[in-house]
Every structure is written in structure tokens, then in C-alpha cells.
Amino acid sequence: MHLFSNKTPPFPREISEERHLSFLRQCFSVQPADRPSADQILAFVQGELLHCIPKILQTTEAMAHNPHHGIPDVMTEFKRRVSDQMPSHLIYIPEMKLISRDELVTLLKPEAITEEDISNSGGWSRQSAIESKLVPGMLKYAILSHRWGTSEPTFQDLKRARACYKKLREFCTKAKRKREGAGYKKLHEFCMKAKEYGCDLAWSDTCCINKESSSELDEAIRSMYRWYRDAYICIVHLAQSESLETLGIDEWFIRGWTLQELLAPLRMKFYGSCWTPLTKNENDKDDYKVIFALSRVTNIPPNDLCNFRPGPNRAWEKMTWAANRKTTRIEDIAYSLIGIFDITMAIAYGEGDRAFKRFMAELIQNCKEWQILIWAGGLSGYPTEPACYHTTNEATLEVLKNRQISWWGEGCGDSDFSVTKRGVGLFFPNLHVASSSSHHRSSSWSCNLTPFPRHLP
Length: 457
Fold this sequence. Notes:
InterPro entries: HET (IPR010730). Among the domains are: 2-64, no CATH class; 72-310, no CATH class. The protein contains 19 helices and nine strands. It has helices at 2-7, 17-27, 38-64, 72-85, 104-108, 115-119, 126-138, 155-164, 168-177, 182-196, 214-230, 258-263, 288-298, 302-307, 315-322, 332-335, 338-341, 354-366, 394-401, and strands at residues 89-92, 97-100, 141-146, 201-203, 233-237, 268-271, 418-420, 423-435, 445-456. The radius of gyration is 32 Å and the shape is globular.
């Protein structure tokens, strides 16, 4: 074996494909008379591996526990949250620059979390401390809710700002000098308010979505409800209000996208047009005066404003919340509701009012309440917007809210229905209405509800 070892090249001490090939080439480059047999080479390699493998395992184990690489459980959870729950782009406030979520590991340094930090988490189990406290604490971000105005900074503007200026603050200052800074000033003020809440990360729909990327835009629309839900604080800028008494005049309350921005967050802070807080609260959703003021303006029950849960239930009622709201793009009438109703559908700008038709098809498939089939207006066979569910007719509201025909489909009629090729199959209540007057103005009504099977086209 000693003679054999003298005729073979040194065995590679680092495992790599390139070194393996080099070793084998050198073995078979010697003269045939001196060339070792295959069995000799195999025996030699096996002997060398017995010495190498323990060293390799020691090196791997050392790397796994190396503080510079972080605690494996922490790093795994951090990367999972970044890829699954964080917006694709954010503003990194300490440096005031636009970043991608892939940069968060480098910027936030989760490897700095130690076992001592985990054990000092105050009664949490090890896994809970990592998943529910330490990692979320590093990734907390503020999110902006507002009415779009003039000169809003775009994703491309901030990318150019990062390339041309060291800090976004410098870019905002230059923009304001050119009288183009209303949107930039709002963005800067938002970031400063986010910083007061201890957030190093911020997100705004004006500049943190690359709308030139269809995949990123699709992800943003599908995930937006969850992003608002998961935000540490939602900062609301009301451009036309300065107090709770004047909330009703602000356009923020009649825009389509702001409905989910009102319902989704657990923590909200309202600011007036000059960035003056409307209350002294840290979280305005904890103040019943704010909640009742919001309920008065929106007609949304206070409990839903505080503890809203998305889903297809109470669909008729939720549609009335969106009835008076408008969007710039017709497709957004549907897209702005998918988070509220927990509906999944493809995003396809350019399809026009077909988006709402597709949305209604998905909603009816998931909703088990016949009230969703009660609308007025629209096209033959389906409603075209939430306004089709709006009514001020007291008799209609009384029937819908009657205990015998409740919001949850109890009472007469079929509480379940199905969408078939022929249409919607259900037992439909037939209302025979008699009036005490020959005219439509009647003082009393009598109703006889008779369910019968019918297919709606």
C-alpha cells in the first residue's frame, strides 16, 4: 500500500466534482505498468475517506452552530415569513430606500438572535418565541392607506432615486423644489410616522408595486388584504378631514380599495390633511368613539370594524358596504372585494365588467345564503356592481332582516342552492302581496311565502 500510495496523486481534502475528476485523471495518466488496478484505487479511496469524513462532519456541525450563520430554526422561520408573508418590495426607513424582500436577510440580520434572546422571551415556548415574537418583531412594517393624489411617486421613480441619490429623503427634497412634491411629501411623512411606531419597514401601494411586472401585480392584488391584516400599524391619511366630526366629507370613505384597508388591519392610526393625529390613541381601533364615528359614516357594524373576518358569509350585507364606493378601473370593482370575501380569481386588466361577472360566479359557488341572489338592476341574469344590492326601501330591508327570513338563510325557502348549466337551482319563495288600497300607497301588507323549485337563468 505504501508503494501504491507513492504512485497515486494526493487525495483531495475538499469534496468537489472538479477535484474528483482531477484525481481520477491523474490516477490513469501513469504508465500502464505502474498504473494501480481499480480495486487498489477503490481500497485507497475508501481508506482516505475514513479519515476525511469525520473532519467533514465536524466542519458541517461547526457551521450549523456558527453564530455568523444564525440559529437554524430562526433562519428557517425568518426566510419562510419573508417569502410567504412579506410584500415583494418595501421601503427600508433607516436608509430611506426601496428594497426587495430578498434583501431583508442581509439588512435585518436575523443571525443576531441568540439562544439567550429565545430563553428570555417571557414564558413563551422556544418555537412560539421564534415564530410569534422574535421573527415577527424583526419583520414588522407599517402600511399606508390613502386617497391617491397628484404627483404620487411610482416604483420606477424610487428605483431611479436609489440609483441617482444616496437617500430617498434627498430625492423628495429635490422633487419638492420642482413643485412636484405633494406625493413625495406624503410618502416622507408616512415613513416618519412609521418610524415613531418602531417600524424599520414601510409599504405604500403607490411605489412598492412594480406594475410593469404582471406577476408582481397579480401577487399584490391577491395578497393585499393579508398584507394590511399582517401590518404592525396601518397609517391612514385623510386629505379632507381634520376631526372625527368631518369624516363624512372625505373621499377616502367612497373609494373601492379603502374598504378592505378599513376592515383588514388590527391596528390603525388616522391622520388629518396636515398629518395631525385625529386622536391621542396609539391604536384608533381600540377607541369606541372612533369606531362609532366610522360606523356612522360607513354603515358597517362596530364589531366588524374591530374584528372583521373575511369570507363569503353575509354576502348581501357586505355588498351594501361597497355599494357607494367607486374605483378608477372598472376591473377593480371586483378585485377590491376578493380579500373581503376570501375569493380566489385570476387578475386580468382589460377584461372590463367581465371581472365582476367572474367574481360573482365564484362568490355564488362559495356562498350558501340565498340573499346573494337578491339584487336590482344590472344586466339580465347577474348584477354588474355592488350598487345593485343597495336599497333604501324599508319594506325590502324589513323582509331581509325579518327573523323568518334571516341573513343566514333560515326560515322559508332553500338554505342551499347550486349553480348548474341551466342556471341557479333553488327553492324560491313566492310572495303573494295584497294591498289594502287600489293604489301602490298601502297602509298594510300581508305576505304568504310558498317555496317552489325554480331555476334562475
